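re the bet — no i am not wrong, look at it urself. input seq straight from the record:
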Amino acid sequence: MFQEIVTLQQEIYRVLAGEIRTFAGEGDWLAFASFVPLGIAFGAVHALMPGHSKSVLALYLAGSPADIVRGLATALVLSLTHVGMAVLIVLFALPVVSAVLGSAGRAPLLEDISRGFLGLIGFWMLWRAVRPSRVRHHAAEGMSVGVIAGLVPCPLTLFVMTYAASRGAPEAGLAFAAVMMIGVALTLCAVACASIFARQGIMKLVAAWPLLVERVTRGLEGCVGVMLLLIALLKRL
């Protein structure tokens, strides 16, 4: 399955590059628009690949009390930040992009910043899980997680924007990035819903034992805090 996704992505890369090249030469928005809707499917497939902070999103929502609305909002903020960072890098920092990007599709400096903030959130969740306090959650926390996890720019958007800019058609890159973000958001929203439903299922199983619910809630939050700390210390997002 993974290899099929990689093959499909490579094929869409090839077709997309051709469409941008054609648009740069002819400026035919109508012809280009006929291809852009495929960006939704492309974004959804691309987001299935490793990365895109799916694990961070799933872990956070599994250990937080967020409902579906807040979970979807977190996923949408993550998607917007993830794609938007790549757009901003190409539009406003292309002359100095080599200072931020270590290799194609990667942004080591932004990755380090994102991991650092995630580590702080992980420590906060771990501390909150063990301290005797009823004031435990904040409405803006999910939005913060979405922004922080999305700081690492989308490698596909970097490719599209850089390629389009190099062909003198940055507007084509922007159009495709906007549509592709919808596909990325669809995949991340599916991850968010699955995580929340799984947590709610566990809570229903222990609902008859209030003390156990409290312990499970704290346990989930503590485990998520530890795992976010490990992600911050040991691996790429």
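see?? The chain has one domain: 2-234. told u. also Residues 66 and 196 are 8 Å apart (CA to CA). so pay up
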